[in-house]
Design brief:
globular, Serine Threonine Protein Phosphatase 5, Tetratricopeptide repeat
Length: about 100
Amino acid sequence: MNERIEKLTAFLQESPNDCFLNHALALEHIKLGDDAMAKSLFEKNMAYDAGYVATYYHLAKLLERTGDTDAATKIYEQGMQAAKAAGDNHSYNELQSAYEDLVY
């Protein structure tokens, strides 16, 4: 395990449902090629806080990269709804662009 993963894991012992920490840990696992663990962490975030918009983009990209385009499409759509509800136009535009690149 790398140093960042160790530190994030230690922080998560104190705050296991911290979406930012789970998200950061998922990104570290992606760097190591551990898509299964990253996917699990992203899904944990979505279950705990569906309003944590950053998760949608990265989970959908992971699904897209691993060939699950149907699931990626659904996650992009859910993310656009969450971003719109949060008034987060920047994230909405990023999600919409990635969605359109995949679908069209």
